[in-house]
Predict the structure.
Amino acid sequence: KDGSRAHVSAVRRIQHVLSAIHATSMDTMDLNVTSSTINEKTLQIGSVSMTLTESNNPDKIPHKTYPPYSPIYYNKLQETIKHIYWMIQKDQLNQDMFLIGPPGPSRRWLAMKFCEITHKEMEYVSLSADTTESDLKQRREILDNGEMVWTDSAPLLAATHGRVLILEGVEKCERNVLPVLNNLLENREMTLESGKRLIDAKNYDRLCQDPNIPQNEMQNLIRVSPNFRVIAIGLPSSTPRFSLGNYTLDPPLRSRFQARDVSEFCHSSQIFAFRRFLKKRITDATDLNLATDTLKKLLLVSQSIRSLELNENLSNIPYFGDAGILSSVHLVSFFPKISIEELLSRIYPYIHLNLNPIEFNSIHSTFIQHRINLNFIPLSYQFLSVSNDPNPVLRFQHLPSKTTIQLKTKSFPSSTNSSNHHSPTNNNFVLTDRIMHTLNHISINFATGKDFCLLGNKGVGKSRLVSYILTEVLNINTRDTPIIHLYKD
């Protein structure tokens, strides 16, 4: 008996080793799509294959919803392929998924890429503290003719049409709201306010074949498609910084999902994606190498900041996420010679945050180790002028080299008395060094198509500065520009 137990234990260990060896051999996988028939294609990733069919609603299938500078954009990166490989496995097992990871758009982009590659239609719900049950089930609406109708929410549309339901921000939703989906996730059933009831496809088909079921009862039953899947997106509650102020998931709801950790992409994958993107935007080889080196240093700084979180006293320092890095890649593609100090002052301005001395000194010393000082930020590009003939073109000068670049932007309403070439004028407005620095930042945002938010104490001139930039610098007609004053209510 002892020998048989030892034999079983040895077999289990050997199987574990073989599975590890097999996993190592599967480190390199390819994503291939082959045509089986005219209307059908086959998706093959490693040992997993999936039949792709044409959708009746192609507008519901996401297409390139992620930027080209994200690693998720490239199908050859192994990290992306392995995530898709796992998601296809869970889809074939009829299991719902939970993508867990740090803040940022990568998990949402990954879920949408899965829908794009597998030709699956998608419904999206962004959850918040204000999400109610009616947002997840049905909402009563009154038409113009006074008729009252029930409008199905995104979860119901996804369930009845066999789509993928993406629930983002589950950690923000109140604990008593999401459990309304418990029965839909586990048994594919749900009772609706309209008196109808969602029912699993197998049970619905079985009832349709039963002659003893009255027809009027079948009219109140709605068949849930067997292709219905749910992909939840949330933050790791085990990390204190991400769990503060958030709601913990209901344990029965949590058990309905198969979870996967979607952390930041590795250094090499990000550099690969960044350089592939920059090659299409930057033609000069010197500028391309300079921009790549700047982004490499930015990644090293982010990794150093994240390593500080291992210290218990520094577990609550501001998180250095990938969203800021991706935003910097977009900016560098327009301004390849921009300094890393300017990038970090935009995405990680720790000197303006309310940090305790230990946190501040730790972050500051890390920046100094990388020879970065945000107390002195050299200005790389200076805004010169804007022309409106025929589309807005903003001119900038690279101060060290005195070279000039021109960037075309989307058209905006110009003043009726505008000239073709317009540069900043004083016009009873004192342009101090601080205002000029802010003006350059805002002009760069306009040129790259980025929104911005001015922060400052009351009375420092935020509204006056915006008005000056719009009218005197960018020559935008502000006559019809609405001003909305926001309050706590």
User: Anything to note?
Assistant: The first helix runs from residue 2 to 25. The first strand starts at residue 31 and ends at 35. The CA atoms of residues 144 and 253 lie 39 Å apart. Confidence is low (pLDDT under 50) at residues 415-422.
